[in-house]
Amino acid sequence: MQHETFSYLLLSGAFCGIMMVLGGILLLYKGAITLGGATADALTVEFKKELRITTQYPALGIFIIGLMFVVISAFLGRPSETQPFTIKANTIGVNEPVSVRLLAGGWNKNLQHTGQILETHHPYVDTLQIVVSAPGYRPLTRTIQLSRLENGTADLGDITLEQSIAFENLSPTIAPVPAHVQLDSLEASGQFGGTQ
Amino acid sequence: MPLFRVFVLCLVWVVAFPSIAANSQAKVIGQLLTKSDSKPAPGLTVSLVHPQFGRSVPTSSDEYGRFSFFGIPMDRDPYYLEVYWGKNLVYRQSVFISRDTVNMPPIYL
To answer: Which residue does chain A place closest to B37, by CA atoms?
Structure first.
């Protein structure tokens, strides 16, 4: 609810800014204000005797203030970015290519619904699970908190994976693909679906 | 005019039906075991490939050999489940995904 109120405030601010700019254009068109000549009396804005802004073209203030409303609303309403971070580790005794997966936790609220579900969630990713695995080795899971990383680096130190099976233990079974069927290569992964 | 209405209805149906079908998504669950002694096969890369949709987000089997996918579009054409040891393909089989949850029988490698 608070986020929705803030969104309405941002939209209101942007709307006011646009109205000020359009209103200024309308007043210019009507001749109520002009930008052509400087006025004898300057317009001065002073804040706590520390900041003073003076202009000989008061009409410009309408456009500048309106533009400020729009810019500030756009700046405050921009999507938040997740900061990048680095994972650092050293695997010991692993003779297969190592892969790393990141898993984020779920988000839930303890709300009760009476048939209709209408919730707004603002996912904040802070806790992540890092899963280090290699073919035939039992995966290793480490949990990190992004807000507690030092220098944006998750240092997992030395990692030892326990081998469970070897490649020689497998008996490949590869079903043929019909000639008219073209399958994307492994490098083209990620076009649909999700995993847990 | 009635002919035009029929045409519009057919057009809407042709456009909407694939979208409706694509919006039906399934969960696929499976497990990898070794053929020799039925031990779990962990750390193998598993993915689903479809001739039209492409290749899914890959996953890797956990310490019990289990893997799962969600958000897989249902389709009447078969998917191909592929298992890789690194970059080596060790298993491929076709699988039909036409219901909400597909619990695959254990895959023996």
So the answer is: A169
